[in-house]
Amino acid sequence: MSVVEDKLRSLGLSLPEVVPPLAAYQPAVRSGGYVHTSGQLPMVEGKLPLTGKVGADLTADQAKELARTCALNALAAVKSVTGNLDKIVRVVKVVGFVASATDFTGQPGVINGASELLGEVLGEAGVHARSAVGVAVLPMDSPVEVEIVVEVQE
After folding, report:
1. Chunked in runs of 10, what are the mean pLDDT values of the chain (154 residues)?
2. pTM of the entire predicted model
């Protein structure tokens, strides 16, 4: 067990299995000292717990929790190529997509779910640059999708 996974456990969380790809891509790819994840949906045991548009079908608070799940799934993808989350030097970038009702403008607050989780788990190494983007629709009618780029030890 790693220090990072111990921290997850202390928060009452566990690292899920890597979400299998929905199409022709890998969940994460390592290039030199960086790992890039594919967009991670908030899948839990192979299913989306909620679907639809934020601001219409679900609340920003519900979507924020889903963004936390996306971040956990992203960490699982990172571990799949590094073998150990303790190799993370820092989270460099987070990009979050929010399937939004036409009048919903709270995308940054939703993606805070992912950002806050990474900070809780990784401390200073979890502080990152970020984009939070509203979109019309996401795969499988998911309300949120998050991808991360992390620097790792060589």
Report:
1. 91 94 95 98 97 98 98 98 97 98 98 98 97 98 98 93
2. 0.97
